[in-house]
Amino acid sequence: MLIAGFPAGAWGTNCYLVAPAAGEECVIIDPGHQAAPGVEEALRKHRLKPVAVVLTHGHIDHVASVVPVCGAHDVPAWIHPADRYMMSDPEKALGRSIGQQLMGELTVGEPDDVRELTDGSRLDLAGLEFTVAHAPGHTKGSVTFRMPETFDVPSVFFSGDLLFAGSIGRTDLPGGDHAEMLRSLARVCLPLDDSTVVLSGHGPQTSIGRERATNPYLREVADTLRGSGGGPTAAPRRGM
Asked: Signal sequence span per UniProt (predicted)?
């Protein structure tokens, strides 16, 4: 399997291209702010043909390049219905103070073909299988994508802004909810195997085992489920 990722734009949002191998069809995950040139470079380098764009949530740092990328390759974009409005109205999604700063430099809107994600659904795209989990907390429509383990590759988990190396996504923007974020961590992340590779919306690669042992928020959730209580030590949050 081939996964080509790069940080894009002012927020360093990770965009990923996933394919069975070089020279094959691929799926693009979260083409955000200023991501289009990096997407085209990765497509040329690995001789890939995109068949779809899939989005972990609707914040502009994850979706700003959806229209040009989908338009250039005539492919659909998949997003949870609760976040779909954000593609056309980032100011409402981010709050006026942040949204106004961005509106002058961005062309917002939906691509021609938008399809909606549902919790527990399976996407079979480019010869790959992605299981969708609705994971609200950062936004109402946040989702994650999990790829199954194969004989030579561990399971891969695209966590968006749910889980980062050492932290979690912020919950202070419109639609954010800290308690809901902790429930999503418990429901979506804790059941995964320790060997699962975590590719986040921001920051470096990690694993579920590493985060289970060291991430203060994931540890808080696990302790609560065990009945030991306690709270997380302060840890910086990432993402828009």
From this structure: none
